Amino acid sequence: MRDRRWLRAATAALGLCLCCASALAEELPVLRVGMVFDGPGPANEEVRALTIAEVETLMAGEIDVRFPEASLRVGDWSYDTSSDAVMALLEDPEVDLVITWGVLASNALCCLAAPPKPVIAPVILDVDLQNIPYSEGTSGVPNLSYVAFPDNTANELQIFREIVPFQRIVFLAPQGILEAIPEMAMRTQLLLSDLGLTSSYVPVDRDADAVDRVLAEIPEGTDAVYVWPLSQLPLAEAKRLVDGLNARRLPTFSALADDSFEFGMLASMAEESFFPRLARRVALNLQRIALGEPAGSLPVDLSVRGRLTLNLATAEAIGVSPRWDMLIEADLVGVDRLEGFEPVSFDEAVYEAVEANLDLQARERSVAAGAQEVERARAVLRPDLTVSATGVGIDDDRAGAGQAERTLTGRLALTQLIYDDAARANVVVQDQVQIAREADFDILRLDIALDTATAYLNLLRAVSLAEVQRSNLELTRSNLERAEIRRSVGAANPAEVFRWESQIANDRRSLIDAMASIARAEIVLSQLLDRALDTRYRAAEVDLDDPLLITGKERLDGYLDTPVHFQTFSDFTVEEGLASAPELAAVRANIAAQERLVTSAQRAFYLPQVTLQGLFDEVLADEGEGADLSAPGLPDDSSWSLSLGASLPLFTGGSRRAERIQAEETLSQLGFELDATSDRLEQRIRAAMVSARASFTGIDLTREAAEASQRNLDLVADSYSRGAVSIINLLDAQNSALAADQAATNAVYDFLINLMELQRAANQFDFFTSPAARGAWFSRLVRYFDDRGVAPWPEDSRGD
User: Fold this and answer.
1) DSSP classification of residue 165
2) Cα–Cα distance between 381 and 370 in angstroms, integer?
3) What are the tens digits of pLDDT across the range 532-544?
4) N or C: the chain end with fewer CB closer than 10 Å?
């Protein structure tokens, strides 16, 4: 009864808590947000959803933020409609805060002297040109919060000119922006005139003929095109515009990494995660305003972490070849559409190598040629039948009865070796030598498979390490930005900026070396695949759980978990490997051949050579003096003979004894060679097992180290930004993180290569093994453990 009373009391208390929580939830303050877009476009829904998600994440449990559909306004890409939409929401009593996602709406909002309610304008292009209020990094205007983009036009154009030289450039910009902010075009022309360049603007509207009109208005002689965000164009029209520009072989630079870039824009310096980061900034500003901070006191500046992106497929199509340093540092897209890059997977590379490798083909022809040595040895034991003709002419003084002056005689000769132990021994020897040749071919085949697998994994390693170096270079650039900010506020001296600039140069050199490693790895792989040595590859990544990497990896759990299990598994692998080793098969074949040679050398003292020979002669024609006495067809014109002979050398000067002793010693040598080869193979298998086990364990450890180094780097970077630590601390943390990332990357490929070496040592490449053979291998493994009384480690005892 006591237990039941306690349960009822607990249930009542829980219900009371839930009621209180529900009441509290209902009492959360409500903030109703209106949103304005300049016009309809494919990105509107994505941007709106991103903003709502960021706000809800930040404000959960604090304020009930609502985005009513009725408070969503969309203009028609004109300044007037955007301004009207802004004013409508400012006057709407059902709206507490306004967000303007668009250049036109943001401009209209920021031009107000004092908004009657809090507003956030996320898209301000140029504070000075748009005459936007700015005071010590804030708007300084009550209720006004905005986000000001940095003016990177000059830097972007400089990068663009480094990709492709140009003198005359056309800017494609939304017509509504050019009409609302005409100073933008004027500023660009002044900027380019200082650089000795000529520029012009072509407005882009939303009507049905916009793309055709834009393409027609681009002047002849234009060298390049800079494309502003054209959100007003449907995706199909944006693609048609890019296709039209590429058809004219005009290099294009996108101000935004949007869908038009994927359609075929050549280059961009836009930050790929720009909109998510901007949405997060908007959400943070909204949170601070909702919690009581004045909107006019919020910071407005936004840094843009741009990275060059190049579309290589577009570059190839329009005949542009960027410099090496551009290719090395840029984020490359369109690689999958390049003719020069060939896709290849792990197993495809290995299969292709064992089919196309030149060394392997040469060895295969050697094996085919060796097979004829066996036929030649057998031919000695088969009948030899020869036909011949002989013409004889003598002077008429000697011609007479039985001998014509001119005679033509035909002969048929048959020779059959009845018995020759040396010849019979040679047949056995050549059979075994051919077996050894085939085993040597298998050895080379396995070695080529290992070399190819290793070359493929080294290519993936080089690509991964290059990405690590590229990320490190980007991190150094970010740290340079931190140093410049610190210097601008007087927290650092110019030496820190110079130090980071020096570090960027060093990191660029490291990235160049990493890219060179990729090229070298591709050359090695091409040689093994017998492809052109300048072939570029799109190598598919290899997953640790790929079934091609280990026989039934998921089924091996429990057979490697303890030293006893590992030792037993190693013994099994050694036994399996030695049983199928082509190296041992080659030595055993040589031993079998040598044993027959020893037997033949011993028999040479007492076994004779027996030969049967038959001859048949026929006078085919005769003429001249005496011909009438020896007419063809008479019995005297044909003759035959049959002989059987045997020979046995009685004394050869000691050569037979020397041959016997030599054969016996060679046989003894091969016996030692068999044992030594077996020991070497066992050592190779066991060493590969240990290396694979160690490198596999190292994967998790190096990953943990990399994660810890990254967390440390984040903390030190944050402290550096606040002036709490010196540049030396940040450099040390960054170098440690780089080394840890490299170690983590190397650990994966070290394990994969060790695994390939283990499979080669055990002659058990899963590339060449059928599923049925894998099942049989596992059955033998289970029996091996059972025979030795070692049970698999229980699954529920292994932990995580």
Assistant:
1) -
2) 19
3) 888 888 888 887 6
4) C
